Amino acid sequence: MFIERIKSPGIAHISYLVGDGTRAAVIDPRRDCGIYAELARRQGARITHIFETHRNEDYVIGSVELAAMTGAEILHGKQLDFAYGTPVGTGDAFDLGSARLSVLHTPGHTFESISIALADRSFSPEPVAVFTGDALFIGDVGRTDFFPGREDEVAGLLHQSIFETLLPLGDHVLLYPAHGAGSVCGAHLASREFSTLGYERLHNVVLKHTEQEDFVAFKRAEHHYKPPYFTRMEQYNLSGPPPLSGIAIPGPMSADEFASRMAAGMVVLDVRGPEAFGGAHIPGSVSMPLDHVPVYAGWLVPYDVPIGLVIDSLDQVTTAREHLLRIGYDTVSAYLHRGMTQWEVGGREFEGLPQVYIGEVKRRLDAGEEFLVLDVRSAGEFAAGHLRGALNIYLGDLPQRLGDLPRDMTITTFCGSGARASIAASILKQNGFGRVENCLGSMAACRSTECPLELD
Amino acid sequence: MFIERIKSPGIAHISYLVGDGTRAAVIDPRRDCGIYAELARRQGARITHIFETHRNEDYVIGSVELAAMTGAEILHGKQLDFAYGTPVGTGDAFDLGSARLSVLHTPGHTFESISIALADRSFSPEPVAVFTGDALFIGDVGRTDFFPGREDEVAGLLHQSIFETLLPLGDHVLLYPAHGAGSVCGAHLASREFSTLGYERLHNVVLKHTEQEDFVAFKRAEHHYKPPYFTRMEQYNLSGPPPLSGIAIPGPMSADEFASRMAAGMVVLDVRGPEAFGGAHIPGSVSMPLDHVPVYAGWLVPYDVPIGLVIDSLDQVTTAREHLLRIGYDTVSAYLHRGMTQWEVGGREFEGLPQVYIGEVKRRLDAGEEFLVLDVRSAGEFAAGHLRGALNIYLGDLPQRLGDLPRDMTITTFCGSGARASIAASILKQNGFGRVENCLGSMAACRSTECPLELD
Amino acid sequence: MFIERIKSPGIAHISYLVGDGTRAAVIDPRRDCGIYAELARRQGARITHIFETHRNEDYVIGSVELAAMTGAEILHGKQLDFAYGTPVGTGDAFDLGSARLSVLHTPGHTFESISIALADRSFSPEPVAVFTGDALFIGDVGRTDFFPGREDEVAGLLHQSIFETLLPLGDHVLLYPAHGAGSVCGAHLASREFSTLGYERLHNVVLKHTEQEDFVAFKRAEHHYKPPYFTRMEQYNLSGPPPLSGIAIPGPMSADEFASRMAAGMVVLDVRGPEAFGGAHIPGSVSMPLDHVPVYAGWLVPYDVPIGLVIDSLDQVTTAREHLLRIGYDTVSAYLHRGMTQWEVGGREFEGLPQVYIGEVKRRLDAGEEFLVLDVRSAGEFAAGHLRGALNIYLGDLPQRLGDLPRDMTITTFCGSGARASIAASILKQNGFGRVENCLGSMAACRSTECPLELD
Amino acid sequence: MFIERIKSPGIAHISYLVGDGTRAAVIDPRRDCGIYAELARRQGARITHIFETHRNEDYVIGSVELAAMTGAEILHGKQLDFAYGTPVGTGDAFDLGSARLSVLHTPGHTFESISIALADRSFSPEPVAVFTGDALFIGDVGRTDFFPGREDEVAGLLHQSIFETLLPLGDHVLLYPAHGAGSVCGAHLASREFSTLGYERLHNVVLKHTEQEDFVAFKRAEHHYKPPYFTRMEQYNLSGPPPLSGIAIPGPMSADEFASRMAAGMVVLDVRGPEAFGGAHIPGSVSMPLDHVPVYAGWLVPYDVPIGLVIDSLDQVTTAREHLLRIGYDTVSAYLHRGMTQWEVGGREFEGLPQVYIGEVKRRLDAGEEFLVLDVRSAGEFAAGHLRGALNIYLGDLPQRLGDLPRDMTITTFCGSGARASIAASILKQNGFGRVENCLGSMAACRSTECPLELD
Fold first, then answer.
1. Which of A3, A123, A195 has its CB closest to that of B190?
2. Rounded to whole angstroms, what are the CA distances from D222 to B388, D152, D381?
3. What ipTM, to 2 d.p.?
4. pLDDT, tens digit (0-9, with 9 covering 90-100), for D335-394
């Protein structure tokens, strides 16, 4: 019997290949699904079942693509009208060799959410592990803010799913959730990627709220952001996304071609780090450090326009494209050959973005100099500690809030460590703000150096 | 926080890299230890600690080699006088970022055995997982037959370690043992490689014996074999084995060279499958299907003589050499270039070994024909079901028991599926038995076809 | 400027990625063409052109598949009416950075054959290398037997192409042909895969025939076999083969399923070595050692029936499938899980095939024992030396010649080293010949041991 | 017969594995020589001979290391008193299967330089290829400036070696030199890595000087730099370098540790690109873009002091260490964990380096603004075109020439494309120059935008 974890970085999505002998199932496959076929091949197994724990909203599900490749059957919850697959619910079970996969309806994150309990029938019909989708994470639970006006209802359902369906499986049951460290799907997610129902019962801070009322109140008080790209993901995942096979591979482009495409509307994502963007970048490009593509592209990049990449190394083309395909951006058409060097040796104008260190920011604050700290972290992060006088606009909301910013003052962008702030600074520059700089280190540097902070 | 499992096939030994942030520890490293340095490198961590759960007897421990490579400190139990490393015991703890590794003295398998509990201090000082070495496995417990005359004492200690030290850590604690599916260190090991203390408490058949007396009796009734190579492993692991760097890489050899080395005493291991050995093999070679090298070479191959390999593919040279180095055979000096083809096109004499299927064996038994079924499985396997009239000599004991076998009768070697039987048949042939054949399928084929079996 | 060789083993087909800067061309892509996209990606280049040196007859060309993936233009000779691509001829040239690829019409192997000369324009407009397709090889030249009744005409054209078009490019020009060591497309191919026009002019035995008449006579005297699968390849390569994306991945199958599919018409290819086939094989299966799949499947396996594989290791599934897809077999549907072991432990009947060594064959010949040596090598190999009394039937012709063989006599199959003979023996067994054995070592063993041979 | 090229980037050193059947030789192995053993393993061959074409001065030769691993014999020229190996000269020949390697004494680059001609004895005793070491390259010839006062003598020898020993082997002979595209060992090296003696005879600009006098004059007029590290390489390669096995693997370090080691003398190499260095870097660190490590570390980094790395990705640690080990820097002890981010979030001060584009430089020149363009290219590059008023100090000489620079003026560093200029700027900053900036794009940008240039 085998379980293999396949983690997609950035969105920190975790899918699983689980099976025994010659048969295997995949739980929540991502769109670039060749990896499951390859892992199954190495196990000497055939993929016969694909489970979707829910209609995902944060990435394109690969079920239809994988089913076409393997002939496997797609299974998902009953409470949503999917255009493909077979509805299943509590009581349905599927055997793969000694492994039995039993469906449990665990609504809350969404109405049709299911969990899948795994038993090793050669030992016991009782479960040894459970795949919980977005119901229960390691250190947190799923979001319950996707049904406006029904937040309390779904939070109540989630409480019931966790306390009445999942935890009763037993403290000793291993926990395999659909998101892990680094996900924006939970605020308290552990960096550790192994746990059990019992460990969560004891140490998951959200599960301290054992009473339903208390739990619902806790969830009601949470604040989450919903990126605009979720809408497209929901459509795709209800009806089945377009196949990958027709999507072209991005090729290298000269500086001249790149510039003329950009003039014609190509969006340029600069996936290098903030320091490199700070040293030299193409005017009008968006800073989008590679790790942040999966989370912030969906806020800031329109669909259906050509995307060009500025990269440091060829591998970044592949990674950036993977990140973007996983959230439905199928239009990555080119990258700047040899990266910025090509632009520079072409004699084309580039710009820098000044980077300041926290000591300088503190000095200015202490000296009462006039400048604006624009803190683009979430409201929750901001409330937990921020610089005096800082203005909080969440990065995802920035394009809509530009009118709230002064154009005659130095704006110092600020976030957790400087990466999101770099994205923000690039957007300000793109929109004609002339005096922009980025605070590398940002809040983390504040905490390291014990700056005085304000709380909300 | 990360845990990576590194499994060495054949002996089914499992070692772990565990750490957080920039620091990592290795638990029970194998001898070819570059893999730990590489995995740590990818994590961006430095290996600072090496734990030995006990003085291993079934493989060469890589601690000294790995310490030389990384500068890490070696830690092991106090009850044995190791020539290297630092003794630790219950109460000692080591922090690697948020991870705390706490030593628990868990004697039983050996007197100095330790387990290591892992806590995620960012959640709780209480353990989330435990590395149990050879104390507690998934589906079984460690052997307690290594101290002749003191079997009951050590079985009692093991009971205490499991029931008073390990299980009380909590049902929810994840279990990471030193052996997994395929190991000869336990008879009931699961094929599944994930479990918790709670799941074992409920479903591990050995742990049904909750009373110490009952447990000791159960352990006393077990029968294990102790291969002669264990003695060398124990010496090596007490004093530190020779470094790998001086050991030559085996090169290709012509059929003529191979034959003349063989004449001069080179032991030839034919690591191809039983079917290929059956079709054609070098007279005098030992059948040793690749997967069986880790377990049976130590019974049948003398130390300190040159070893030559007959292989199907070049990768088998690497794998066979790894297997052999892990159990202290440092004299693999050559392989037959292009395998048997080279021998064959050289016009050299080869031999076949007849392979019979179970239907033919049954037909002969039913017809009362005279032949001997030599069943080389363990006494326990034999007792649980065997063919009528079969003689049981454990494969490891065969070289010492040749005098018990008739030379004037067809001998049909027999085991679980035909692989060990192929080894046995090759030993018989090597020792001049003229009418030998192998039953491919063996007991598994019996069970598939519902042969009548006898029990002991 | 870069050239990368991509060799497909078995058919020993060589394709090339050639380019400079951001642009690259592929010459004669194989069907599984992801490798070219990946190599181009690593070079930071985009594939813009695909050249077909001729309508290949021995493998499925990947041009259409690769063009769909990259948007590249397909270019081929003018003398054949392809259903896709653009016709080109002498005088057409294409620039990729400093590289200039110039087309040369070099008919002979086929009428529309082209070569492509490569110049490094940063040094000289004169060529530094030439891609010769099937016109000129290292050690040999292309076949001229594909146009029945016009053999002399095409041989004359080939002479002209080599002596008037290619060799005049200069002794110093590097030679990159479409087939290499191991190909059946030439009898004298070097094992070495680097040469120049000058080295060939001096040392290629076929080019000793500098006079056209002499050259044509030499070519006329050659004897080649044309496997039946060439017909399908020619159709595919004229009209474009089916895409790979819809072809299912073969999965593991139990012994029972395998047996029942076989009963329903599935062809079983046993891709293990002859020794393993000799030890135990499924009755009715065809011995087809993995390396021989590309060359002999096309003679012996019908199209459009399901194919099942018997393998030694999972990698053989992938390799066998690749080999088969490259020659248009798209129906590999399953493999026997765990190979023969699965069959054996299922208690199913298997058979052996006796393997004899050359010493025994000689002994019998000397003793005048009655048996038939069936030599399945080509007529040319046979003529150059064979055993006394041997009957020569080329392996590819065997299914049509079974009526010529005695059913009441031991037949010893024989070839170059024993692999083709194993295939032949399996076909005899499949057709009810009861006394069949294979001579491992075969002619090579004869030569090693200085058997007396007869010439034709 | 096989030849495999192993190229070490940066120094563009090319070594070769050449062999046939079960035997192989390595020509000019690099220090990290496991790759040869692995390539030989895949060929099924044993490395029996190691050739050194000359006592290399630009990298550590791996012969002694590789001989220890394989038992191969080391062979080199007779005219130098090596502490290891066997002297060989013209007339000595070594057979590996069908391959014959014949030594040719080809002095000039050094006195003991040898070339190795390769014949395929199955075709002809005449050579098909020649390994020329540093005698003859593709597009250039070896340096002849290593013996002060004897330059003309050695240039004469080189002329003789090329025109009387190498070219007479025949136009059709393939050329395999010891350096390729990107090497500083020749000014005219092709980007193309395949050629023949004939192509060089026709198109190598240096070989236009067929008359010895003319050739010597041409070589006399060349200007080369000799980095100080060559001295250590020469010592190492005469006596044998220290083994790699004792050299520690660099581990991750916190910002605090890194800072305190730096204070204690650790040299910090920032191997990120110039843009990232421009955005933010550690005060006092040396900009050394990864690709430039092999060539410029040897000029600017002292031996025997600890080296710390600032990196963008973990792979850069491995690559930078390889580069440094190959030129004898064995003291890479640490890297900054997570790169600059770690420094920034630690709240530590960082600095930027302004990057200017060519348009701004031209504007200032046109406006007559006061600033100094410091052009750090070689004298030859400078002579071929430079900006008006630029000062030329070769990068390697910069530390010795700091006194020639004004401290009260903006200095704009300048080179071919901006990378060497970044190194130069970091050295100026390290030495207290306060107004330094780097011109990204540099001369290449000038040429793209058609700046007016001056010639010397």
1. A123
2. 91, 12, 12
3. 0.95
4. 999 999 999 999 999 999 999 999 999 999 999 999 999 999 999 999 999 999 999 999
Q: Do A345 and D276 touch (CB under 8 A)?
A: no
Determine the distance in angstroms separating the CA of B120 from the nearest CA of chain A, rounded to an integer. Answer: 8
Tokens of residue B431, six digits? 């020792």
DSSP B106-139: --SSSTT-EEEEEEETTT-SSEEEEEEETSB-SS
Provide the β-strand partners of residue C179. Answer: C13
Which residue do the tokens 């037949």 mark?
Answer: C411
CA distance A297 to A286: 10
pTM recorded for the entire structure: 0.95
Report the residue of A5, A128, A169 to disrupt the B interface, i.e. the one with the largest count of B CBs within 10 Å. Answer: A128
Whether chain D has a CB inside 8 Å of the CB on B37: the answer is: yes
Neighbouring C-beta atoms of residue D183, cutoff 10 Å: 22
Tell me whether residues B98 and A198 touch, CB distance under 8 A. no
Interface A-C, measured as beta-carbon pairs within 8 A, has a size of: 49
D318 touches chain A (CB under 8 A): no
- pLDDT at residue number B192: 95
Q: Could you tell me the pLDDT band of residue C10, with boundaries at 50, 70 and 90?
A: confident
Interface of D with A in 401-440 (CB under 8 A): 417-418, 440
| B347 touches C356 (CB < 8 A) | no
Any idea of the CA torsion for C361, C365, C368, C372, to the nearest 10 degrees?
Answer: 70
Query: Chain A interface, mutation test: which of C2, C20, C22, C49, most A Cβ atoms within 10 Å?
Result: C22
- The band of C76, judged by pLDDT with boundaries at 50, 70 and 90, is very high
C169-227 confidence digits (pLDDT tens): 999 999 999 999 877 777 789 999 999 999 999 999 999 999 999 999 999 999 899 99
Q: Could you give the domains of chain D?
A: 2-239 (3.60.15.10), 247-345 (3.40.250.10), 355-448 (3.40.250.10)
Q: List pLDDT tens digits, range D149-171.
A: 999 999 999 999 999 999 999 99
Concerning whether B415 is annotated as a catalytic residue, the answer is yes
Query: Closest Cα partner for C192 from C200, C2, C57?
Result: C200
Scan residues 382-401 of D and list those with Cβ closer than 8 Å to A.
Answer: none
The number of CA neighbours under 13 Å toward the Cβ of B132 is 32
Judge contact between D232 and D57, C-beta under 8 A.
no
* CA distance linking residue B56 with residue B75, whole number of Å: 14
Nearest-CA distance A350 → chain D (Å): 7
**A279 in contact with D, Cβ within 8 Å:** yes
The Cα-based distances of B91 to B50, B115, C129 in angstroms read: 17, 12, 73
Query: What element of type H or E holds C37?
Result: helix C34-43
Task: Please answer whether residues B321 and B414 qualify as being in contact, where contact means their C-beta atoms are separated by less than 8 angstroms.
Answer: no
Q: Mark yes or no for CB contact D44/B71 under 8 Å.
A: no
Q: What is the pLDDT of residues B176-205, one digit of tens each?
A: 999 998 777 777 899 999 999 999 999 999
Which chain A residue shows the shortest CA-CA distance from B138?
A123
Distances (CA, A) of D279 to A422, B108, D355: 11, 60, 9
Chain A hits for C253, CB-CB cut-off 8 Å, are 22
What pLDDT is stored for residue A65 in this prediction? 94
Measured between alpha carbons, how far apart are the two ends of chain C, in Å?
Answer: 51
Q: In Å, how far is A91's CA from the nearest CA of chain C?
A: 29
Just list the catalytic residues of D: 415
Per-residue model confidence as pLDDT tens digits over D241-290: 999 887 888 999 999 999 999 999 999 999 999 999 999 999 999 999 99
Q: What is the pLDDT of residue C328?
A: 96
Q: Do D441 and A346 count as a contact with CB atoms less than 8 A apart?
A: yes
Inter-chain contact A251–C42, Cβ cutoff 8 Å?
no
